[in-house]
Amino acid sequence: MRIGIIIGRLGGVDGVALETEKWIEVLNRMGHHTYIISGQFEDRAINPEYETLVPEMSFFSPESYWGQKKAFFYPDSNEDELIDHIDLYSKVIYKKIIEWAHKNNIDLLISENASALPSHLEMGLAIKKVIQKLGLPTITHDHDFAWERGDRYISPYQKINDLIENTFPLRLPNSIHAVINSHARQILKTKYNRDSVIVPNVMDFDKPFGVRTGKNSYLNQNLGYESDDILLFQITRVVRRKGIETAIKLVHKLENKKVKLVITGNYNDDAGSKYYMELIELIHLLKLGEQVNFAHHLFNNKGLTSRESDLNYSLSDAYAQARACTYFSTYEGFGNAFVEAVLAKRPVFVNNYKPVFWPDIGSKGFKTVMIEEGRLTDKAVEEMKTIIYNEDLNREIAEYNYYLGKKFFSYDTLKEKLQELLEKAIKAA
After folding, report:
1. For 213-314, where are the alpha helices, taking DSSP H only?
2. 2-202+411-428 domain in CATH 3.40.50.2000?
3. For an engineered disulfide with 106, which of 4, 143, 199, 296 has Cβ 3.0 to 4.6 Å away?
4. pTM, 2 dp
């Protein structure tokens, strides 16, 4: 089958892009031919045989940027001008997608979050028109929705709100939904009477990951630590919902100067660096300056792995040197960092972020120390201490979790789910 994938951005560490690349890989393994149309191919050249660039589809294009700012952030009095702008550029994108679909003889379409989250109004509207015109079976891979973002996608213009309500998420007879957690499935059913298939985020359990190498053996020293220091890793961006303050408080409660917390992600997505400054204040208050390291400058943060010759470390290198990982998020659409730790055979300490963690991940039977509402109870801290210091138990837990991860969140799982989706989409059309 010739499958066309529509996405705003491919490449980098964006969750939608990462999962899309996994879908592409597995679909190709299944014998299908995948063709990608995107507004951006980050940090690499495109393969013109299978990939098509449409700049207007980029989230950072002048067209999309202007539409988002006027619709949600800096509205002016001319609502009709805004609507005309969205209509005009949706037609530009529509025409280019139609030409791409015909050129590549596409049999089935996959819209990667572009028909779920209204972060590119023009593209979402164009995709809806394309699917109506072509009548092709369509899968919308819905990672997150407008209502999950508070008031981010509520406009002062009623016509914009009507457009969002009628377009996001896409609800056409020849389309079906793939969602990443059971809560999303429930909301779609309750709100729109739309059925969906849960496709969890997955990892390739057949490739080495988090393996110690000659390169990452020097990571302690490059962080300014001793070779026998114990490293806990927070492998996330610095944004408030990651609950990094809880990881910092854990280091304080462990009362061991040899334990260090390393935070790999940057704070580019922290508006005004407000949360980052709060963390700095907490570190200062608890006198942990020598034990907490914001180390994004050492990590490339452009993917999970890298070449041995790359100057920066990869996230695989980080997991390789971790004694355990902290993941005290307050909300996640799924929880990639949890599965990454499982794949790397590293224990992970987690907050029961609602409504996703326990129903979709924790209930599978993973051995971890789980806290509630970010509270580090004495019991939880003692359990974490045991796992950190008892290396035999540490390995036993990691091996057990790896077995479960491979069972529930591997490419084999994705293959089964994709086959189910393809069959449902063809039947729906």
Report:
1. 219-222, 244-254, 274-285
2. yes
3. 4
4. 0.93
